[in-house]
Amino acid sequence: MQSLNDHSFFHTLEAPGAAGLVVLTKPGCGACRHVKALLLALTPSLPAPLFELNVEESPGVAAELDVFHLPAMFLFRDGELRGAIHAEARREALLAAIHAAWAAGG
């Protein structure tokens, strides 16, 4: 999982043809640690690279994306934000939601 910050986030994910699943987290967030561990285990099955952004170090992205709760996940495809990923924090539910969003184009 590659780390992003306010400076690299949009440059990396909005580049022409770029794709990625980004999870916004913060230290001390138990739910964030749980989802992050699930996503790391699912990495070989994900349709796009996995990125993480710590909102305590980079609050600008969270504000730009109107994030009010953590963890938050967003799918980028072809250099565009395609939307948020919402799923239960279970392996099967996360993988199904991510693949469904990818198949729908976001």
Quick description:
With 106 residues, the chain is α/β, with parallel strands linked by helices. The protein is built from four helices and five strands; from the N terminus they run E-H-E-H-E-H-E-E-H. It has a five-stranded mixed beta sheet with strand order 1-3-2-4-5.
The mean pLDDT is 93
Largest sheet: 5 strands, mixed
CATH topology: Glutaredoxin
Radius of gyration: 12 Å
What is the end-to-end distance? 20 Å
Describe this structure in words.
With 106 residues, this protein is of the alpha/beta class. The protein has a single domain (2-103), classed as 3-Layer(aba) Sandwich (Glutaredoxin). Helix content is 35%, strand content 25%. The chain has four helices and five strands. The protein has helices at residues 9-13, 30-42, 59-64, 91-103, and strands spanning 2-4, 20-25, 50-54, 72-77, 80-85. The chain has a five-stranded mixed sheet. The chain is globular. The mean pLDDT is 93.
Descriptive key words:
106 residues, alpha/beta, Glutaredoxin, 5-stranded mixed sheet, 4 helices, 25% strand
